[in-house]
Amino acid sequence: MSAGSPDRRLGADARPEVVVFDPMPCSDLVVPLAAWPERGDKVLAVDVTEMDGGVSANFAVAAARLGATVHVFGWAGSDRESRTMLTAFQAEGIDTAAIRRRRGAAVFRTIVLVGPDGERSVVLVPPARLPAALDPAWASTLEDMHPALTYVGPWDGAAALFAGAADRAGGVLAATLESGTAVRDLRELARVSILFLSREAAASVGWDPRRPDHMPEGWRHGPAVVVVTLGVSGSRYWRTAIGRGWSAPAPETRALDATGAGDAYAAAFCLLWLQGVRGEALLAGANAAGAVAVTGRGPRGALASPGTVAAAVAEWRHRARAMRGTATTP
């Protein structure tokens, strides 16, 4: 798949078909703190809330609210977390027909510590056993759908297998590379059209976002587009084959909780990409979605509307035209 030439150019009013691979339910225990603890300290929690979460699930909900027709593939059980996940998806109008139910399905748990400044640290509690292998029927279902975009979530073995099936279905393939993932040669991600990384994840695989011209050679043969989110500094993306990048600052906002902001950003970036938006305008729209997300508690407490994202894109384009006009005025 090539991120430079997606199978479809969608108008702003289109509802793209988006497939999301969500291998298992995820439960977030969100703990806002009165202060970050020093080593050996004890601090007070402001609140403790358990809620539905997970990178892929958050992406699916954000994409649905931004106007995509979303289909989720994955596994679920009969436990409380599975029921919560399915209920949340169905409330958003997300198609769950491809989610397979089985007894004792695995649940991924996270403990999210949120500081007074809205920044968070995450403790991952993986299940004792991983979900079952891919359902053989998923490949043919994907080929029948011909989705405009498939998001496989955090890159791991299961995501790679699903990406192989999605590759044959066509469309844009997007993924997230998380900090600590054992990837040293990005050529193994060559089939990925758009890869999302945090600043920390980018540094862990040898690319300093502050020096984009010093791109490691392996990246030139990896994902077609690499997107690095930089928190309050905004974000950047690169077309790796040509080594060209674009950047845009983040809008000012008062952060309450950064949990899920990267997932909301990724959903907006992907849908704008499908609409043919490029350059700084694309980043402005995605940055706006991420900025809205940090103003709510938890991963879905505040998600951007299509109008919010479109307004950010339009404002950036207006500003760019004004700057070009000023530059050519004698």
Q: How many DSSP-defined strands?
A: 13
Structural class of the secondary structure composition? alpha/beta
Helix content: 25-40%
CATH architecture: 3-Layer(aba) Sandwich
CATH topology: UDP-N-acetylmuramoyl-L-alanine:D-glutamate ligase
The figure for the number of domains is 1
Low-confidence stretches: 4-13
Considering the protein shown, what is the CATH homologous superfamily? Ribokinase
Using the coordinates above, name the CATH class: Alpha Beta
Describe the protein.
By secondary structure, the chain is α/β, with parallel strands linked by helices. The chain has one domain (18-328): Ribokinase (UDP-N-acetylmuramoyl-L-alanine:D-glutamate ligase). Helices cover 31% and strands 22% of the residues. The protein is built from 8 helices and 13 strands. The chain has helices at residues 55-65, 80-91, 137-145, 157-169, 199-204, 261-274, 279-293, 306-328, and strands at residues 17-22, 26-32, 49-52, 69-76, 99-101, 108-114, 120-125, 149-154, 172-177, 194-198, 225-229, 235-239, 244-248. A 9-stranded mixed sheet has the order 5-4-1-8-9-10-11-12-13, sandwiched between helices. A 4-stranded mixed sheet has the order 3-2-6-7. Strand 6 (108-114) and strand 7 form a beta hairpin. Helix 3 (137-145) crosses helix 4, helix 6 (261-274) packs antiparallel against helix 7 (279-293) and helix 7 crosses helix 8 (306-328). It is globular.
